[in-house]
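Appendix B, Record 12. Input sequence as logged:
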Amino acid sequence: MPTLYDLTIPAYRNGLRALSSQLGKALDWGEQNGVGELQFIAARLAPDMFPLAAQVRFSCAQAIQTAVRLGASDAPDLGEDAADFAGLQAQIAATLAWLDAIDPATFDDDEDRAVGFDLPNGMAFDMTATTYVRDWAQPQFYFHLVAAYAVMRHMGVPLGKADYVNYMIPYLRPGTAPSA
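Logged structural output:
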């Protein structure tokens, strides 16, 4: 049976590495198509949604918060939203380096232990560690990851599903890739 570590940290590393690659593609595409970094940084899907810079920071923060709530320590401080692509990549790199350094043993196997947390709006939640991972941590992480992807798509970056799940390529059965 997978542990809480197995259900979270490898997935967060995969998602953040894919996000880093998507940002690289967005930067290259923007340079070729007259879309500047500041346009991307401030881009959002709707007026009441956070911009790309916040979606990237939130993706990192969700991975960090989950690991801390499950037992990790010495989390990096991401600061505020990044002002450029170098800053976005630095946030992702700091998060990945920290995630890579987590000893799986820090996530004890007590899946029924209590996890509680408060949101800035005053809402408070109490649940088991398993419920937390399933019903909060994973959905929150993927929400912000998808929002960042969608902002870049909305801006015109030619991203596809292969960019979102690029970590799956090593598992591709030989001879089954679609031909161009």
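The domain at 4-105+144-169 is CATH 1.20.120.450 (Four Helix Bundle (Hemerythrin (Met), subunit A)).
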